[in-house]
Amino acid sequence: MLSGSELWLLRLMADRGLALLDGGTVVILIEERGELRMGACRGEQAASLRIAPVEGTALGALYRAREPLALDRPRGQEAAWLHELGLQARSALVEPLKMEGYGGGLVIAVRADGGFRRHDRESLQAFAASVAQRLAAERSVEIERIRHGIQARERERTRWAREIHDESIQGMGALRMKLASARDLDDAAALKDAVEAVLEGLGHEIDGLRHLITELRPAALDDLGLQAALQALARRAQAIDRLDVSVEMELGAAAGASDSADGEGRRLDAELESTIYRVVQEALTNVGRHAHASKAIVSITERDGAVHASVTDDGRGLPGLERLGPRGDGLEGGFGMSGMRERAELVGGELQFGPAAGGGTTVRLVVPLAGRPNAAVEEPAAGASAP
Ligand SMILES: Nc1ncnc2c1ncn2[C@@H]1O[C@H](COP(=O)(O)OP(=O)(O)O)[C@@H](O)[C@H]1O
Ligand SMILES: [Mg+2]
Fold first, then answer.
1. Which of 235, 225, 223 is nearest to 257 (CA)?
2. 263 pLDDT exceeds 50?
């Protein structure tokens, strides 16, 4: 399927082709899995065709010929593909699209009255080459973005798998052994004690799994919003790591943005809320694990059309840069810091790690709001064709 940004690009290119040829109609068809799909049709006429199979159609035959073609007053068999497109033509130009590593396509220009000049054929040829080039570039960016996302998800799953294995499975394995040896006990009192111990252990395991589930997808984030979810994280850090965490959140009340019922400021879009939540979660985990800190401050504010989220601790500071790799991502242990950066980049933001005033560490996330759903920033005028 052609993606939204590919379609947008093709439409833009078709408009450019139209300007180049001084009018008429320009059509771009892209082949995918044995079908020719309408990428863009701009100009005087509107093509009625959306998709045509390559096999068994005149358009498909035209595509498979992979040859430039110029027709004047096309008739009969010659004009069959024009009928399939639903276009009237006194004259028509065809250029094949050649894309390395992909299916190809066709660029077609028609005039309902009047002909093309020799010069137009050359223009269309150069135009087809630039369409192919731009589309291939767009696709490789798209593929890179998807690959990036998949890798990040895979890493996260690995982390959860490890956590479930290390925490729950091993714990339950120990309980099973305890029960198995209790089975052979003759002494009723000892048996009862063993069962009690196993029951208590199971209670711990259930609590642990509950925590894991909350971390996997915090219900608070969906139901109560970012602030409540961050408060829950803070309480957790307090309970587990004895860390005094305060949460400061100040988002501007945006025009057109949805206010939460209790008036605690507006909601950001779901993707951005999860990104902020995950970054804060990982940063707090690091504070608990590495910083030897007593306090941490989580701050979410909105400034200059961007959301700024930071986690600052009063701990011993980051280890020397030589241990954190070229991007400061951390090479020692897990993927925590590079994972945070990846998340930031996936929403078009930036992540920085650095020393905090008075020792300690600050992790800072900045995400521009322009173009996001619920954004406080002015939206483009209605009808503007944004990608
Ligand atoms: N708040 C912090 N204070 C001190 N050191 C930190 C802090 N956050 C991260 N670090 C250091 O950066 C390293 C990399 O962190 P991370 O990428 O999250 O991996 P992991 O937590 O699995 O070790 C940590 O091992 C630790 O040495
Ligand atoms: Mg970590």
1. 225
2. no
Tell me how far the alpha carbon of residue 244 lies from the centroid of ligand 1, in angstroms.
19
Please give the distance, rounded to the nearest whole angstrom, from the Cα atom of residue 291 to the centre of ligand 2.
Answer: 11
* Distance between CA atoms of residues 58 and 64, nearest Å: 10
109 touches 30 (CB < 8 A): no
* Probe target for ligand 1 pocket from 279, 284, 290, with the most ligand atoms within 8 Å of CB: 290
Residue 91: inside a domain: yes
Pairing of strands 244-250, 295-303: parallel
Residue 69: in which H helix or E strand, if any?
A: strand 69-72
| Best residue for ligand 1 mutational test, from 155, 241, 285, 286 (most atoms within 8 Å of Cβ) | 286
| Block residue for tokens 């004690």 | 193
pLDDT digits (tens, 9 = 90+) for 71-82: 999 999 999 999
Is 386 a member of any domain?
no
230 within some domain: yes
Domain range for 30? 4-145
State the CATH number of the domain containing residue 75. Answer: 3.30.450.40
Domain containing 320 — which CATH number?
3.30.565.10
Ligand 1, residues at Cβ distance < 6 Å: 286-287, 289-291, 313, 315, 317-319, 330, 332-334, 336-337, 361
Residue 187 lies in a domain: no
Confidence of residue 321 (pLDDT cuts 50, 70, 90): low
Of the three residues 145, 180, 201, the one that is the final residue of a domain is: 145
Question: Who wins on pLDDT, 260 or 68?
Answer: 68
